[in-house]
Amino acid sequence: MIYDESRFRIDLFFAADLLLQQAAINDPYLPESSSDVSFMQSLSGSWSGVESNNGPDSNSASLYGISMLSFGESGLHSQWSANDESNGKIYQLNWTRDYRGHAWSVGLIQPQGSFSNFLASPYLYGLEYRSSNNSRTDNRYQQGTSLEINMPVRGRVEIHRDGRLLFSQMLEAGNQLLDTSTLPGGAYELEIRTFDENGRSLAEQRRFFVKDSLLPAPGEWRWTLQAGQPAQLVEADLLPEQGDDYFLQAGVSRRLFEDTGLFVTTATSQKELVLELGARWISEYLELSPSVLKSRDGTNGHRIHALLKTPYFTLSASDTQLTPKNATNGDSDNYALLGTGYSSRDASLNTALFGGQVSLRYSKQDSGIYVSSLDLPTAPEISAATRLTTLEFRRDLFRSRRWLGEMTLSHSDADGERLTAASFRFYYRGDNWSHSATLRGDSNPSEYGGTRLGFNSSWQDGDRLPLDLSQQFSGEVSESNHYLASNTRLAGRRGAISSTLDYRVQDTTGQRAFNYLGNFNTTLMTDGNHFAWGGEKTADSALLVDIEGSPDQDFEILVNGARRGYAKGGERSAISLPAFQTYEISLRPLAEGFYDYRELQDKITLYPGNVASASYQIKQLILVLGRLMHNGKPVPHKKITIGEYAAITDEFGVFQLEMYGNPRKLQVPPVIWGDCKVPLPEQSAGQHWVNLGDIELANGICPDEHKHYIQY
To answer: What is any Pfam family matched here (predicted)?
Structure first.
């Protein structure tokens, strides 16, 4: 304590241990749902195929649906699909709840909470209870493992899971990393199929895919418990067939130190018992994630992932191996926890060099799949390579606000098959149009190799249209072939659709191929009182925006300040939003003019299947201007009334007021001055305003007097 008698002041100082500690986040969980009973049906479809004069036509299409009947934070959820190769399937049908860090599901489920790098999540008739970060507001993150494949020639890749198409893309020749950001979380097998430009199958291979878990929050446990009977898909059945075996898995993780976490998982069935121990250690420059596995039948496994980040380079490497005691398992009646053995290694190095970026990648799988078709005697005998090495160098040649020039040099090695390529790309970006030209050459000795010159022109609507429209045209010519392609994407109130068309001609042989890819999505929803359908993007919750007034006018829906869709006046529109978030909703007119509206709902919190509502009463405003005169002199600071609207003149006699209506159709009533009516002169009007001009009080008519003008 310090006393200053000159200022009559006392300063008190307290030790830090005596001060009250206040948490940075008072409540790390989302509030209750803003929705009661609601229903959502999300629909998305994908198609992919080729038509060629040098082989059989092929195509693949699938329809995927998510049905959710929601009761606040709980709900009945179902996932189903249908495709052109098999009957419809139901993959999940369960009652689920995910609230304040606790999640549970019962019914037909595919467990989501797993800390294992080896155990796949089966279809399960049973129960899952786990900790969850979904409803937390302070931390949620998932990381997916990388998938790299070799494309001997330029063509198409498809990623399938359980017979349905998840991802499709056209790729250049060489070793290619696939985009896994849109793949769902969990641990499961993927089927990767590759095709050349004419649709001939190159390879099919299966990869085990895992989305890793990060460290738990300090001082908190993460756990998972799954119990039930495993099931498997049957071609002729709608629901997965329930097995005679049982499945039980439990896992727990804890942050032991600030930078170290421990993960323990155990699983059992009638014949097997597995124990897995894993850890994660993070430092400023190095990250390590090792895990080891041991089963009762003698199967061993290990996985280690390392990431080294320095100011000069980034190095990552991983090694995974699962070695079964017996190469085959003759007991097919029981569910296999681990399946067959496998091994894989991969490493990548990224660094800056000569003003650009150098990337060196290496991957090795235990086996590749050989594919050959007797119907295509001219098809090259190509197998999926097991050892891939890639060296790539990228550098900007020049860069400005509108222009960009870059070059890429790469060398790929796939089991001794080498491919060297160089490309130069020049890019111009305008307000709506963007153009680029690419010159590429490679050492591929086939008709797909050589030197190629390509162009690309794309157009985006920007703010010209209320919907989101983009169109891209591309083409390429080489010594032996040429192609034209188009990519279109349209997203609006009723959903989104995109299409890719690719037409290729080989000049030397006359072979022609037409590739087509596409997808669409839309959502049907109701909050129990109102129905709507649409949404630019597919999500697991939604907002219904009801606008009363301003018919046929377009309004942007702003979610947390960013545009998420648009709505029309006088109609009800649907905006799809991700669940487990709290949103601030606002409205912004797209048309010019003035509007009067008041938001009835500022904040909403959404959980899976929730459909919240926001209503707006919007009226178009007309700005009315005029000047009050008496015998040619301004009348200042006087109140006048025009219909039900009132205004006060300023020191120059000028007044301004807002009226509801259309300026082209608005009939402005006479000015009321006390008990007198002052007729209006000839009016001039614009799109959003009306000018009454000079209003002369001397021309006013007072019915209670014998005078035909106002004495002022």
So the answer is: TcfC
**pLDDT digits 0-9 by tens, 640-695:** 787 778 888 898 889 888 777 665 555 666 777 667 777 777 677 776 778 888 88
Measured in whole angstroms, the distance separating CA 30 from the mean position of its chain's CA atoms is 21
Bigger pLDDT: 644 vs 295: 295
**Contact (CB, 8 A) for 619 and 550:** yes
Torsion region of 561: left, alpha or beta (phi above 0 gives left; psi -120 to 50 gives alpha): left
Residue 537's Cβ-side half-sphere holds a number of Cα atoms within 13 Å equal to 11
Residue 113 sits at φ, ψ, to 5 deg, of -95, 105
Q: What architecture is the 522-620 domain classified under in CATH?
A: Sandwich (2.60)
Q: Under a CB-based contact definition with an 8 Å cutoff, are residues 487 and 15 in contact?
A: no
Residue length, the chain?
A: 712
- Six token digits for residue 217: 């929050």
**For the segment 471-512, what is each residue's pLDDT rounded down to a tens digit?**
999 999 988 888 899 999 999 888 999 999 999 898 878 889
Cβ–Cβ under 8 Å, residues 62 and 165: yes
Start-end ranges of CATH 2.60.40.2610 in the chain? 522-620
Structure tokens at 9: 């002041």
Amino acid 389 reads T
**What gap in Å lies between CA 494 and CA 471, rounded to an integer?**
19
Rg of the chain, C-alpha, whole Å: 34
Q: Which is nearest to 227 in space by CA: 122, 336, 134, 332? A: 122
Task: Give the chain's count of helices (H) and strands (E).
Answer: 0, 53
Token pair for 516: 């087509």
**CA–CA dist 175, 170 (Å, integer):** 13
**At 18, phi and psi to the nearest 5?**
-90, -10
Better pLDDT: 329 or 452: 452
Burial of 583 by CB count in 10 Å (0-12 exposed, 13-18 middle, 19+ buried)? buried
Q: In angstroms, how far is CA 535 from the centroid of its own chain?
A: 13
What is the β-pairing status of strands 433-442 and 387-399?
unpaired
Q: Which of 111, 101, 106 is nearest to 134 (CA)?
A: 101
Q: Can you give the pTM of this predicted structure? A: 0.73
Q: What is the DSSP string of 341-371?
A: -EEEEEEEEEEEETTEEEEEEEEEES---EE
